[in-house]
Amino acid sequence: MKLEVFVFYQEWKKAIDLVRKAGNVRLFLSSFFGAVRYTFFEALTYVRAAQSASGWKRRQMKKCALQTIQLIRGWAKNGNVNVVHYLFILEAELAVLDGKNKEAK
Predict the structure, then answer these.
(1) How many CB atoms are closer than 10 A to CB 59?
(2) For residues 15 and 101, what is the distance between their CA atoms, to the nearest angstrom?
(3) If phi over 0 gives left and psi between -120 and 50 gives alpha, with beta otherwise, what is residue 78?
(4) Which residue numbers in the chain have pLDDT < 70?
(5) What share of the chain has pLDDT > 70, as a percent?
(6) Is the pTM of this model over 0.85?
């Protein structure tokens, strides 16, 4: 997936443009693993975009990130242990976004 490559090379502008343009592709992914992985990268992209934005754009990106993270939280709560490590990473990134660097460690 292009999104994974953009995230790997920390091309956040290209990644957020791709996520925005693609919309909800989880409906079209053939496997649950693919949908989970895409959801993680989508949330990570929104969080990183929010970190570099300011004002209403920052709030908008954070809101989109929280909605996507809520999906992963639901999967973890329902017993999918394979997403717990994704959740830890995203919660640490959210802590950095909120200026709580000690919680992110």
Answers:
(1) 12
(2) 24
(3) alpha
(4) 27, 29-31
(5) 94
(6) yes
